[in-house]
Write a structure and sequence with these properties.
single chain, about 230 residues, alpha+beta, Four Helix Bundle (Hemerythrin (Met), subunit A), 2 domains, about 50% helix
Length: about 230
């Protein structure tokens, strides 16, 4: 789905679905009118399209249909939760000294530097998992032994990773994951899939809460505990 946003009286609303001719109409949209006129941004309308569509709109090569589209408030709420959690995580890591980054986290048995790098990696992996779940495709068949082996290798590799590299990945991968979550429809959030790792079916929304958000919140607790002064 390629979405355009209309800003009216300071309130941004998703009102237009800008589609290249071959793209299907969103199943949840209500059709109101159709025009072949190119999109021309005005002071009251800011057209925001993604990837190649932005160039197509700018050149007037896109057929535009006008739709009333309501963004999933559930997806927005989940994206906001993730944003708040990862911003707090970034502030915590940014505030760590070089020595503190080498502090061991008791539960995970790795350095703060390694654990923060792990969280950045899960941002990327989580985004892929969410895309897969939302599309109704089979979820990865990883086992807990696979996860433990990958974590052990990564913890060793990133034990002394520089803070600037960690922060870069946290921001880059976090921004991308947040965008994936924010663009989901209610139907995609409710899509279910069997996750072998947990041995049960989960909705996309549950995967976002348990993996994308839960990983940040859980490990932040470990890092906060590790950096507390010892009594």
């Amino acid at each position: 789905m390629i979405v355009a946003s209309l800003e009216h009286d300071g309130v941004q609303q998703l009102l237009l679905s800008v589609q290249v001719d071959t793209l299907p109409a969103p199943p949840y949209a209500t059709h109101t009118s159709e025009t072949t006129q190119p999109v021309v941004p005005t002071p009251r309308a800011l057209i925001c399209v993604q990837h190649m569509a932005s160039a197509a709109v700018a050149s007037g090569c896109v057929t535009v249909r006008e739709w009333e589209v309501s963004m999933s408030q559930r997806a927005a709420a989940l994206a906001d939760r993730f944003h708040q959690a990862r911003e707090e995580f970034i502030r915590t890591i940014d505030g760590c000294t070089t020595d503190q980054l080498q502090t061991q986290c008791h539960g995970e048995q790795c350095s703060i530097a390694a654990l923060a790098s792990h969280v950045a990696g899960v941002h990327a992996l989580g985004a892929d998992l969410v895309r897969t779940a939302a599309a109704g495709e089979p979820l990865p068949t990883l086992t807990i032994d696979d996860i433990n082996a990958m974590n052990a290798e990564q913890f060793t590799r990133d034990a002394n990773r520089p803070k600037e590299d960690i922060l870069r990945d946290l921001r880059t991968h976090g921004d991308a994951a947040e965008q994936v979550v924010r663009q989901l429809s209610d139907a995609e959030l409710d899509q279910t899939g069997y996750l072998p790792l947990l041995g049960r079916e989960l909705t996309t929304a549950q995967i976002i809460e348990s993996v994308v958000i839960g990983d940040v919140e859980g490990h932040l607790g470990s890092i906060t505990e590790a950096t507390q002064p010892r009594a």
